[in-house]
Amino acid sequence: MKLDKPVTGGPCWTELGTSDLAAAKRFYEGLFGWRAETDPRQEAGGYSIAHLGDAPVAALTPLYQEGQPVAWNVAFAVPDADAAAAQVTEAGGTVLVGPMDVFDVGRFAVAVDPTGAGFQLWQARAFPGAGLLNAPGSLGWVELMTREPERAVDFYTTVFGWSVNAAERYTQWGIDGADFGGMVTMDDKFPHEVPAHWLPYFAVVDVDLTAADATEAGGTVLMEPTSVPDGPRIAVLRDPQGAMFGVYRAADEK
Q1: Residue 3 within a domain
Q2: Are residues 147 and 244 in the same domain?
């Protein structure tokens, strides 16, 4: 079973912090068919929401803090951001920002797990998060890259109550019977300077064509399109400003 809308404990939103907002808009609008609209309020700081049709699917933002990396971030839905932030701290993580209100749309916090991967907490009010999940051009899977998998399992199961489906080659995260993400152990193939991180995957109709389109638009293919045994076809890409993201097509989608 796949998530088709945000649920408590699951991924509900993803946003890109980028060094060139205009260029990022052009790249992702061309790649996924998004329509990005920038909040005109000065206090919104250039926050732009990308839509597919009328559905919000992701956000594109300027870099708000000095030293902030160009990267995609993943948010998880919680009923109470303050209580969740306290759980993060108790479980060995660190809260970097918030919890704080975002106008009337929700309350959020930015945190780091004990292995070094950053993520966000989102308590919805007027804005529940992504209007589409697992549809072409929308968020469909999130993957934790970490060098300390056992520590990560302890942390996320404590904070969010996720189920863990651990196979020999891959661990999957689930909530209420739906797997929504996985975990990859970073080995010696990963450069030492690459920190633990969450990687969003967007659903696409054709992985190979999307990878080719990304390259033509100035992006880079980091992992060539690959079919996972008994699983999806995937690729990992990097946009022209340096943010990494994945694309996939499920095996049961012919």
Answers
A1: no
A2: yes
> Span 32-57, mean pLDDT?
92
Given a cut of 60, is residue 254 above it in pLDDT?
A: no
Q: Where are the beta strands (DSSP E) in 7-127?
A: 11-18, 35-38, 48-52, 55-62, 71-77, 94-102, 106-112, 118-124
Q: Which residue has the tokens 């559905």?
A: 55
The DSSP secondary structure of 153-166, one letter per residue, reads HHHHHHHH--EEEE
Q: How confident is the model at residue 1 (pLDDT cuts 50, 70, 90)?
A: low
204 part of a folded domain:
yes
Q: How many domains does the chain have?
A: 2
Q: Is 79 found in the same domain as 51? A: yes
Q: What percent of the chain has pLDDT over 90?
A: 82
Residue with tokens 């160009």, as numbered in its chain: 70
* Structural domain harbouring 211: 138-249
Q: Which residues pair with 109 in a beta bridge?
A: 121
Is the model more confident about 46 or about 136?
136
143 lies in the same domain as 227: yes
Which one of 40-44, 164-168, 230-234, 235-239 scores highest in mean pLDDT?
235-239
Residue 73 lies in a domain: yes
- Nearest-CA neighbor of 99 among 82, 120, 80, 124? 82
Q: Residue 190: what pLDDT?
A: 87
The answer to whether residues 153 and 214 belong to one domain is yes
Going by C-alpha positions, the residue among 172, 198, 248 that lies closest to residue 75 is 198
Q: Which residue has the tokens 């049709």?
A: 53
